Amino acid sequence: MDIQKLKQLIYQGEKVDVECKKAESNVPKSVYDSYSAFANTKGGYIILGVDENKKKTNPEERFIIQGIENPSKQLEDFWNTINSDKVNINILKDEDVFLVTEDAITLIVIHVPRANFQMRPIYVGANPFTNSYKRNHEGDYHCTNAEIRSMFRDQNAEGVDDMVIEHYTMDDVDIDTLRAYRMRFQNENGEHIWNTYDDKHFLEMLGGYRKDREKGIEGLTLAGLMMFGNGLVVRDVFDNIFMDYRDESCKTEDVRWNDRITYDGTWENNVFNFLGKVLPKLTAELPKPFKLKGYVREDDTPLHKAVRESCVNMIIHADYMLEGTLKVIKTVDGFEISNPGVLKIPKEQIYKGGNSKARNPRIQSMLRMVGYGDNIGSGFPTILNAWEQQGWETPELIEDTILNQVTLILKVKQEKSAKKSGEKKSAKKSGEKKVTNKTLENQRFILDSMKQGVWYKASSFKDVVAVKESRIKELLKDLTEQGKIESTGSTKGKMYRRC
Length: 499
Fold this sequence. Notes:
The protein is of the alpha+beta class and about 500 residues long. The chain folds into 3 domains: about 5-155, Schlafen, AAA domain (Methyltransferase, Cobalt-precorrin-4 Transmethylase, Domain 2), CATH 3.30.950.30; about 170-410, 2-Layer Sandwich (Heat Shock Protein 90), CATH 3.30.565.60; about 420-499, Arc Repressor Mutant, subunit A, CATH 1.10.10. Helices cover about 35% and strands about 20% of the residues. The strands form 7 sheets. A 6-stranded mixed β-sheet has the order 12-11-15-16-18-17, covered by helices on one side. A 4-stranded mixed β-sheet has the order 1-2-6-5. Helix 11 packs antiparallel against helix 12 (about 300-315) and helix 12 runs antiparallel to helix 15. The longest helix is centred in the middle third of the chain and has 15 residues, at about 300-315. The relative contact order is 0.08.
């Protein structure tokens, strides 16, 4: 990064992924708080050698690039401290910390990546509950105890939904829900030996009931209770979680919604029932082209599978220990599907598929065994491909690290095009090569990995898309022509950033 690229980053102002510090003669102690905050949130840049005059509004007057004294000494002090017990883990590589110099002014730039879910929380000192930080648009803040406990739970790659909920037994199962599930299970798995088991043994095999020999307790697991529990019991144990469906497709000033599924006493509110009630409402108006499977009409289209997958993802990735809502909203132009909990893996990996890290793998298995959900790791690409086939806007995954919530936006409308239809026809006549699904997928991965306002080299994307650097440059050229990114510099030193 040269000084021009760095100035562009600085003059955007401090935000969720940029922090400027004065640091004239020493590395400020607050650097390590920011390191924790960036690592626990979305990553970002800490820039040492920039003063801030908060009375000014013009970015170039507000942020004063004054540089630092003894840059080599400060750099050495930073590395010595970050590798000591000042923080619990150092996730930085040598290339993440570097000097940028112009004339007599030198700054230190520290690029902090987002920490792997098995490393979070990153904290200062010895106590994670007093010195773990996260980041919002106003700066660093102390994590709440709930956020810290959530990060510790996420460290378990096997999930936490096999946890035994002490004192809750088969008496707390809603028999009608379990019966409906078992009928569906038998239809999907007619010869399965589990069909001969009694309810308790069946739940044990599913992972819904377990003995914890270490603690000397047994009972329903988190997965068993959330999937099949009596509604009153689910609300008693998980009073922090709410399930809500709203049809706002015809909303007016006088009418907030046309239909709603909520806790109204008419149904047992466990997640299996919620899914069963919501899915028919979401898929009722989706197009169903006439297609025969043998002599029977096939109504289960890729689009229907994608909507199912979206709701399944909401359930299997939710953090049921956090306060939040399993929320599905039908809007005038699509759907919004939300769950409590932040992303466990980077967004670009989710779009790419093949690397699922569900918080609730037992619930995931339960749903998959009755036809809900694709093979592990293929869920999100299923959604993307279905939307692409329709020519609809690419689904958008939004992570709110402040509210600890993930929302999937599915727009049921055509992708915006920069070209008129006449221009498209002329392009085809001139021999323009066909854009493949793989090309679109790779371009999407590149765009999703680019932070707003940050300049990148073509080589920066070698770990994002599995193609040669020459092909990456072609993808970047196409994105530039589409007006989605901009470039600067000559061939060898060419840099790119998102528009």
